Amino acid sequence: MEEGYKQATIFAKIAFFLAILAFLLDMIGFYTPYWQSYQFMTNHLVWVTKFDGIWRFCTANMFKVWCRSYNYETTYSNYGTRSWFEATQAFETLGFIAALAALVLIVLYIFVPQTSGKRIIGILSMLACFAAAGCIMLGIIIYGSKVERNLSWSFALCCIAGIIFGVSGVLLLIDMLKK
């Protein structure tokens, strides 16, 4: 395992560490309900803060926080037409799966002696990074173009993760061209 890492180029090593960072950022952004947040006052003059993610939404006042998963009725009432929201969920899920595949493939490319430095593994890991970046960014573009309130930190983490996966893909491409 150590031999493969020592033989790996600096581009592959940087791509590996960036892919880990991007995966962690994407995982946090994917699961947390803070893609947008906004405040409003109820009829009882109580300020309420609403946090929406792509899988759950939370409502908080100064006394209590409660969260629920989306279902057909809540998604429809929160977002009207659901197709764009479902497209966001689909692309973000595909991006998460591609991110996991990219991470596994980069580990195979760098650390596993039987596959270390193999061109096909390098190409597959590069393609997985680009697929992760593309799907994550498509989900972000769809969501960002439809939401009219404040985008929040989970959304930003996924944006950053998509960009970092793109950079990892470019570094792996450079690694392929240098060999």
Blueprint (SSEs and pairs):
Elements: H1 2-7, H2 10-31, E1 36-41, E2 47-52, E3 56-60, E4 65-69, H3 72-79, H4 83-110, H5 119-146, H6 153-178
Antiparallel strand pairs: 1-2, 2-3, 3-4
Helix pairs in contact: 2-4, 2-6, 4-5, 5-6
Kindly describe this structure.
The chain is α+β, with helices and mostly antiparallel strands and 179 residues long. The chain has one domain: Up-down Bundle (Butyryl-CoA Dehydrogenase, subunit A, domain 3), CATH 1.20.140. Helix content is 66%, strand content 12%. It is built from six helices and four strands. Strands 1-2-3-4 form a four-stranded antiparallel β-sheet. Strand 3 and strand 4 form a beta hairpin. The chain is elongated, with a radius of gyration of 20 Å. The mean pLDDT is 89.
Distance between the termini: 20 Å
Helix and strand composition category: alpha+beta
Helix content: 55-70%
Ranges where pLDDT stays below 50 over 5 or more residues in a row are none
Tell me the radius of gyration.
20 Å
**Per CATH, which architecture?**
Up-down Bundle
Give a short synopsis of this structure.
This protein has six helices and four strands, in the order ααββββαααα. The protein has helices at residues 2-7, 10-31, 72-79, 83-110, 119-146, 153-178, and strands spanning 36-41, 47-52, 56-60, 65-69. Helix 5 (119-146) runs antiparallel to helix 6 (153-178).
